[in-house]
Amino acid sequence: MSRNAISRLGDNPSDDICPVCKSNRYLNPSLQFLINPECYHKMCSTCVDRIFTSGPASCPVPRCGKTLRKRGFHKAFFADLKIEREVDVRKRVGAVFNRRQDEFETLLDWNNYLEEVEGLVFDIVEGDAKTRAQAEEKLKAYKEANSGEIEMNTRLGLEEGELEKRREKAEREAARQRRLAALKEEEEEKADLLKNRKEVLDRLATEDGDANAIAMQAQKVILKKSSARRNLADTQMETNKSAMDSGLTIRGLKKKEAPVVEKPYDPFGGVDLTPSRYVLQESYDSEWLGNAKRDMRHMAGGYSLQEYYARTMFEAFSGLGVFIEDEVADRGQPAPPAVGTTPAVGAIASGEEPQSKPKPQYKMESDDVF
């Protein structure tokens, strides 16, 4: 708190006087002031016990009249009650507008959401009576419309808090283990150094070799043991770090999902119309189409040789896959005899010689259009 703020608090003697019983902190140093979030009017703890112990009652501060309960009173954390009220409003709004950053796909959407929440807090804290009423109504409507999401985000927040506590506890334990390991390593290193020094002195006293070579060899042994001990400590540290990071969750923006590309409309419903009995070529040699190929004026009205080729090949191969006998057998009906064989079959059954097949007579019928 700045000096100006302290001086302003010190210059205002009403900050140390209860507005109800007029008790003065100067005369009673143990006097404790309490506030209620309903109206943020300050009064001493003695007045709170005297007025609100028997049940809810109206605020005794003139021109207030709000109904207060004893359980709502608490000690102010900030000396400025405006700051205390703003902190409580932010807690109340934050408990409702508790969406998470990973629910948004872009940073702009996340910032717009934060701006909306900040505007709502400002309207409740600094707005007039009408603005505050509208903001409170908006807060209430949002809470009723998104109660499920609010509860889920609250539960996720509690789980993240527990996870963070466990992670901090694990980090403190890992730091303690590292300190113990460092002390143990230092003690082992000192013990090895003393042991090697004694071995070197014994070898120098009993052997006739070069003293410098014996000292160099002992130094190499010491460095080798120190390196092995250090590598073992690094391996254990990496193992502990990976174990702690396995439960770590990093919050961020929601993974952006690409919109599904709309496919063009298919009037055949996905049926493949590609011919299977032949391969349609781009051009065929035909004396009937020679002039059409050379003279491009045939194409002016939308005529297409490829369409002509496709239709001709379709008509040529259209009846190859049709077998009437198989289709009739699938229906459960006897297949009709071939045309022209019925008289012969009857003649054979009666013992007569089959007569020659009569010539079919064709009769053309046409409608008279006149």
TrEMBL record:
CDD domains: RING-HC_TFB3-like
SUPFAM superfamilies, alphabetized: RING/U-box
Keyword Zinc-finger included in the entry's annotation: yes
Residues covered by region (Disordered): 332-370
Subcellular localization: Nucleus
Coiled-coil segments: 125-204
Biased composition range(s): Low complexity: 338-347
A GO-annotated cellular component: transcription factor TFIIK complex
GO molecular function: cyclin-dependent protein serine/threonine kinase activator activity; zinc ion binding
Pfam families named in the record: MAT1 (PF06391), zf-C3HC4_5 (PF17121)
Ranges where the RING-type domain occurs: 18-63
Record keywords: Coiled coil, Metal-binding, Nucleus, Zinc, Zinc-finger
Gene3D superfamilies: Zinc/RING finger domain, C3HC4 (zinc finger)
GO biological process: nucleotide-excision repair; regulation of transcription by RNA polymerase II
PANTHER family given in the database record: CDK-ACTIVATING KINASE ASSEMBLY FACTOR MAT1 (PTHR12683)
Matches recorded under NCBIfam families: cdk7
Protein name: RNA polymerase II transcription factor B subunit 3
Organism: Amorphotheca resinae ATCC 22711
